[in-house]
Design brief:
The chain is an alpha+beta fold. Helix content is 21%, strand content 24%. Strands 1-2-3-4 form a four-stranded antiparallel beta sheet. A hairpin with a 4-residue loop joins strand 2 and strand 3. The chain is flat, with a radius of gyration of 13 Å. The relative contact order is 0.17. This is DUF397 domain-containing protein. It holds the Pfam family DUF397.
C-alpha cells in the first residue's frame, strides 16, 4: 500500500487549495496533485528528488 503525504505548506492565495502529495515508491519518489488523487503521478528517482529539494530550498523567497 502506498502512503501519500500532503505538503505541510499547503494552501494558496484566495483560499485555493494548491497542494502536492509525496509517496515513497519502490525505486522512486511519487509526486501528485492532491486534488486529483487518481490523476498522473510524477516519478522522480531519489537523486533527482534530492536535487529538486535542494533547488527549492535554496531559491530566493518571494513576499
Amino acid at each position: 500500500m502506498t502512503i501519500w503525504r500532503k505538503s505541510s505548506h499547503s494552501g494558496g492565495a484566495g483560499g485555493t487549495d494548491e497542494c502536492v502529495e509525496l509517496a515513497r515508491l519502490t525505486d522512486a519518489i511519487g509526486v501528485r496533485d492532491s486534488k486529483n488523487a487518481t490523476g498522473p503521478i510524477l516519478h522522480l528517482d531519489h537523486q533527482t528528488f534530492a536535487t529538486l529539494l535542494h533547488t527549492i530550498k535554496s531559491a530566493p523567497r518571494s513576499s
